């Protein structure tokens, strides 16, 4: 039945239908076993970097050491945002061996993705922190809270609700960007699609199939994002 459905498409042939059917489960398996874990690991590490960088940027300057760290952080953000993610990943995997640093494909991909997410995510988190009215900080100080107590108990919960939509979009974008890991020999979903297509050198149907699988996964992520935003809206004063 599936074969008949595929053959009803205008560009489909028997050979292409067989190629699409044979490639479906390997690609889905690679998505579950590699692409999604790769995205989760990179996003988690990237968010840890992003929070640290954002806190450095929003904390009032205290001495020359803080000023130096602040300039380093700004330089990191500028470099990452000003260069393609693909170049960053290739530097980690192909470039670092030139100075004696060898990293396996998956860790190299995670490092590249995390550094990228850390830079972009830090700007999102910084913006959400700054979106909280200054009166909230003053209220915390008034009742005797320290800077970190005020941030953790008052500012962070409010900033988190604001940050969910853009950070959710960042994660969805990262899931799609895991296809770049194929360049450093990570066998994620797109690399599996390439391997399937290389059997017959008929790339069009397999790549369309891969695109549809990416879209289906992203649709699920969109749904989860919408439910999470709706749930968090319950705690926002109208």
Automatic annotation (TrEMBL):
Membrane-spanning residues: 33-56, 204-224
InterPro entries, per database record: AA_ABC_transptr_permease_3TM, ArtM/GltK/GlnP/TcyL/YhdX-like, MetI-like, MetI-like_sf
Gene3D superfamilies (UniProt xref): MetI-like
Chief location category: membrane
Subcellular location: Cell inner membrane; Cell membrane
GO MF terms held by the record: transmembrane transporter activity
Any one of the GO BP annotations: amino acid transport
Keywords: Amino-acid transport, Cell membrane, Membrane, Transmembrane, Transmembrane helix, Transport
Protein topology in the membrane: Multi-pass membrane protein
Residue span, ABC transmembrane type-1 domain: 32-225
A GO cellular component entry from the record: ATP-binding cassette (ABC) transporter complex
Family: Belongs to the binding-protein-dependent transport system permease family. HisMQ subfamily.
Protein name in the entry: Cysteine ABC transporter permease
Lineage summary: Bacteria, Pseudomonadati, Pseudomonadota, Betaproteobacteria, Burkholderiales
């Amino acid at each position: 039945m599936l074969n008949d459905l595929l053959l009803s498409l205008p560009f489909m042939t028997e050979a292409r239908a067989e190629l699409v059917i044979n490639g479906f489960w390997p690609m889905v398996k690679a998505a579950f076993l590699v692409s999604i874990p790769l995205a989760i690991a990179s996003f988690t590490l990237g968010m840890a970097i992003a929070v640290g960088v954002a806190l450095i940027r929003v904390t009032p300057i205290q001495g020359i050491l803080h000023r130096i760290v602040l300039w380093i952080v700004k330089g990191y953000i500028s470099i990452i945002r000003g260069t393609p993610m693909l170049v960053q990943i290739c530097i980690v995997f192909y470039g670092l061996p030139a100075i004696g640093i060898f990293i396996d494909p998956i860790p190299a991909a995670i490092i590249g993705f995390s550094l990228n997410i850390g830079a972009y995510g830090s700007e999102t988190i910084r913006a959400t922190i700054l979106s909280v009215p200054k009166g909230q900080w003053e209220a915390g100080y008034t009742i005797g809270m320290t800077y970190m107590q005020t941030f953790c108990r008052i500012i962070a919960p409010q900033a988190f609700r604001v940050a969910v939509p853009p950070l959710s979009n960042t994660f969805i974008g990262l899931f799609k960007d895991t296809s770049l890991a194929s360049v450093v020999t990570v066998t994620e979903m797109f690399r599996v699609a390439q391997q399937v297509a290389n059997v017959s050198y008929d790339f069009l149907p397999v790549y369309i199939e891969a695109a549809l699988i990416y879209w289906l996964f992203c649709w699920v992520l969109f749904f989860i994002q919408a439910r999470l935003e709706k749930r968090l809206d319950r705690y926002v004063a109208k």
